[in-house]
Predict the structure.
Amino acid sequence: MNKFIPLHILSFLILFHFLFLYSSFAQTNKTDSLEKVLQSTTADSSRVQLLNNLSADYRSSNPEKSIRFARKAIELASGNGLLKGGLASAYNNLGNVNNSLGDYDSAIIHFKASIAIKEELHDKKGLGASCYNLGTSYIGKGNYQEGLRFYLQSLKVHEETNNRKGMASTCNGLGLFYNDMKNYPEALKYYERALKVYEDLNYPLGIATVTNNLGLMMENQNRFSEALTYYMRCLKLSETLGDKFLEGTLYGNIGDIHYFNKEYDEAIEYTKRSLTLREEIGDKGGLVLAYLNLGGCYLEKKDYRAALTYLEFCVQRSVEMGEKKERLMAYGDMTRCYSELKDFQKALDCQKLYTEVKDSLFNENSSKQIAEMSTKYQSDKKDKAIQLLNKDNALKEKEAEQHRTQRNAFIAGFVLIGALCAFIFRGYRQKQNANRLLDLKNQKIEHAYKIIEEKNKDITDSINYAKRIQNAILPSEKEVRSLLPNSFVFFKPKDIVSGDFYYVEQKGALVFFCVADCTGHGVPGAMVSVVGHNGLTRAVREFGLTEPASILDKLSALVEETFSKSEGDVKDGMDISFCSLHTDTGILEWAGANNPLWIIHAFEGRLEEIKADKQPIGKYENRKPFSSHRLKLVKGDLILCFSDGYADQFGGDKGKKFKYKKLQELLLSIHTQPMNQQRETLHSTFEQWKGQLEQVDDVCIIGLRI
């Protein structure tokens, strides 16, 4: 009943395919019984088999136990040639549980180990299953080409061994793949092939799976009538099988179709049936979706109180599970409900919560995208270095060839003067060959230049995309003006993306603003800036902090926590000048990490410096809590937060640094000018000072007149 539903249905289908077609059912009584048998079994072969069975059975209900049993099986089977089959199964089990946890890199490693052993043992039936599982790992990772290759390899192996159930299962997986790619004719071809085999085998579970997937495919194409036909057919099968998980999902799917057809009473009826079953089996993810969909139905029926009841349930459950997308949509619908009920304060509260969750989701995606851009940047940079090295080698070879030709011509002329005509002719032929060789090498050099240009374009495109992400994170000029009307921001990155960033946020009568200078510049600095911006947002919004010193303490802890996940010793961090202005009283609270605060007192015409704590944000030995400064300002006072980029810029007649003293003198000379004019003066002075020299660092200055 919302745009995220197809993704949840597709996730269910892939999970359903894993749990029921390539693994055993996880049943509590069965696992308890197997564990008791394991305790009394001494033979290694029997113990490996029991450990593998337990690993497969615990895969969904207790992944930690599943991994532990698989590793015990590997430990017991390793080095024993008679237990290679059990070793392959253990690796396959580890791959499956890592797939279900979303750790596709680990899953790929274990499936490849399983495949290598199965190929050695000529276990083609097991090989087909592991190839399929490996394909699913690649698809989960986003490598669709490799995923499709292993799916087709799995199908080929099953066809060679006439494993009809394996063929049908892989065809169903190929149908899922092409359905996700929106290649519906190809998806239909594989679904129909899978369905025919399952029907020939009289295998109800397989028939139900494919029938449900066909319903999903029709729903994705907005062919709701056909989708409903497939869902109803599958529902009958699921009732026969007694599969409450599948039955609950189908009730939800049927409710979706009625919702799309604006048949809200029928949609509510089926969604409530789905809710009952999901509560019975403890399907927490399904409950969140059912509550959200019921809220949406009652919203369309204009029964706003009922809608709010289910939407509040959805929010509670989604918070427990950490599901932000469903929470986002629930807050959106709750905003509409309260608006219709004329309770505008609650509508505003829900809208703020909606914005916070939306920003959180956006920042998570932005961090990930910038990390991906950095990886691509580093890879492309290596390629560029290789190309430059090849070009340099080609030039050196060309020069060496010319020297050899000249040397040979000189020796030949000196020693064989008597055969001058013959050697002149020979030298002429050699020169022709040399010219042809030089032409060929020149062509190679030109080709190398073209490759370098293409790589440069790819790198620039990647960084430009990262710039768009960073610009989306930074406050817009309109937002800065609305919160800090009499202010300017002078922001000049050294490269396309910046390690400096500025932050502006409002919380009641408090307006927070700061300038931060992260370790490095360019793409590495931009990555740290995303971590810093996210940390500030969490400190203010999630942890509800208002005192600058407490905010910096929390930011430092969040930054250190983020980088502690790295295998290396990452000491990246940032310097920062952070302000909190109470708009009603004019009181300014400030804290700083290495970077000070400057205040130009309007009536006295003097510049006062408030010194910062001599420690950065991030990992630091002998860290102390940051100290806050409380200042009462008067109208006309000018507050300045800045990074070190302006003062450190080389330029002028002697190519020296601009320095802080000169920057103070400049600011004092222009502090009475309008804010926009101050920014323009800072910009023109910086450019004039820099001249033809390269900018050495990112530059950021915020000025605010009280």
User: Anything to note?
Assistant: The two ends are 50 Å apart (CA to CA).
